[in-house]
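Just scan this pair:

***
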Amino acid sequence: FRAVLQSNNIVLTGLISSMMHVPLDMIESVEIVNPIELGKHIDAKNFMLDIKVRLNNDSIINLEMQVANLNNWTNRSLSYLCRTFDNVQCGNDYNSVMPVTHIGFLDYDLFPDELEFYSKYMLQNIKTGKIYNDKFSLCVLSLKQINLATDEDKKWHIDEWARLFKATTWEELKMIAEKDNVYSEAANSIYIQNSDETVRAMCEARREAIFHEQYVQK
């Protein structure tokens, strides 16, 4: 996930456009502000793969994929979002804070009693629904509920991104890639990164760390 998005700005821009509902012609710049050296630091147990993106130099988006349910997503994502929201430069007015969004790509249902494909959460008055602050939001994409994609989700091709991330064979990727140049770029990047031994080693190490964390929790 990180290797593909970090190595291909066309794919990153396309994904941000869909998830944030921003037309491509409205995007001037998309930059990862916490890049890593792919294949390094693979022995760090707490190595996180979140991607912090600056959009048009006026907003920040945190992207993260989680395959295993560690039963801490709501607290974890909120902690990440709060740290990111604290972006006012020393001496500047609080109104200069950049809007922040945390987007989680989860391969499990966050709330099994309330299934949804793509959801958005914000601070609001529980009695009136009044939004407290529109610069602070959390989004969750359930990779298990693509069939629940709304017309709005399909309009922004979020369901296609989910299918791309869920693809398990090159045949599936090829079918998706034929639909759009951005998906073709993504499929090519996935192929290249899967051929990179250092990236594969990093993925294996990350998976082992997750298994270890689950074992300790049990």
About this structure: Residues 42-46 have pLDDT under 50 and may be disordered. Helices lie at 2-7, 9-20, 73-85, 151-155, 158-166, 170-177, 181-194, 197-217.
